Amino acid sequence: MKYYRLLNNMKQEELAVKAGLDRATIIRYENNLVEHSINIIDKISHALGVNPTIIYDDYFRFINSDYGKKIKHLRIKCLC
Q1: CA gyration radius for the chain?
Q2: Is pTM beyond 0.85 here?
Q3: In contact, 46 and 19? CB cutoff 8 Å
Q4: Rounded to the nearest 5 degrees, what angle is found at the Cα of 8, between the Cα atoms of 64 and 30?
């Protein structure tokens, strides 16, 4: 997140205001001091003008993907 914030020449306070969050939240997220929330990551990425999936970790990429549908389709296919 910090990389994209700096790339956009934004201060933490500017990002916080644009994302509707506290500056402390931005600091905690940039320093990995909190459990990440997909909703907050979406707000931050929207404020930065980037696709949230580039900020997501592997877990959030999985949660946000359609892997569940693909696995269900494969399981049904294997039962036939």
Answers
A1: 16
A2: no
A3: yes
A4: 55
